[in-house]
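Hi W., the SN-glycerol-3-phosphate complex you wanted:
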Amino acid sequence: MKIFLDTASIAEIKKGLEYGIVDGVTTNPSLVAKEGKEFIPLVREITSLVPGPVSVEVTARTPEEMIAQAERYAAIAANVVIKVPINLEGLQVVKALSVRGIRTNVTLVFSPSQALLAAKAGASYVSPFVGRIDDVSGDGMALVEDIAAIFGNYAIATEIIVASVRHPLHFVQAARIGADVATIPFATLVQLLNHPLTTSGMERFLKDWEKVKNPGR
Ligand code: G3P
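Structure:
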């Protein structure tokens, strides 16, 4: 499973890349707003740091405006993937961009039918938001299972990005299902590594090692 960082923070992206397990980045308007930086220079910096795909979301409302915006963003770097919300306008945009060879990540996916239509329109990725479904007492991971089964039925090449990941269990469940990608906040990446038995085990080893260095103490 590929791991994308769900952030627009340059500091988090740099740290994640140092760990050597980050395959790409996803952003959204809320994550970009948190950074308080000018948008295009920020995207340029992220795309120059990250070797893999970087999702950048369109915010215009009409298909024509969204396509124009997408073309401007796609011109920034070859690794830009255009994030498009799933609705009737979004479908048209995905189709138009796929014809132009511009990759898309269809976002705000909350049902299997949305995912299937996005794939049929030519989406490179679909992003089911598991955490937000759990927030309203649904089962986010069940949606990922459904999408994976449907894509499997028809050998659909569109990749599934498990998004709105809130904790390590979402990440593990995504891998069990065989999702192509999990996009995770930086804090979750750190949580994936932490285990109290690893911490206490290391403490004990280092304490015992002191005895080896100072025999008899
Ligand atoms: O990037 C989209 C998604 O991952 C947002 O997550 O936590 O705001 O629902 P969240």
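The first helix runs from residue 10 to 19.

W.
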